[in-house]
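tool=predict chain=A
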Amino acid sequence: MAWKEGIVLQPYLPLLLMFVLAAGFAVFSVTAAPYIGPRRYNRAKLDAYECGIEPSPQPVVGGGRMPVAYYLTAMLFILFDIEMVFLYPFAVKADDLGLFGLVEIVLFIVSVGFAYAYVWRRGGLDWN
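tool=predict ok
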């Protein structure tokens, strides 16, 4: 009986080997990097990195407002990411869904269009 179970699991062997290879590469990369990487440290490399802005020793208490472009960029990413996640399965099964599926996808695209128009109106697509 044990050999029959081996035959059933045989199609998963390449997947298992891929996971083992990926884990081995990750472990090797993390453990080998300190030994083969350059060791030229200076003050700039040891400082904290804050998105290209010089770090300040004092925290900004009640600091300035964040530009709305950051939030609009995040909204754009989420908007189009979710749109693709929902449009792909629809495209695969469009024939099976019929009129109900067509109505649902049109409502979805209209709601995505409203979000797109909002971001466009707020200047989220101006990359200055």
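The chain has a mean pLDDT of 80. The chain has one domain: 2-121.
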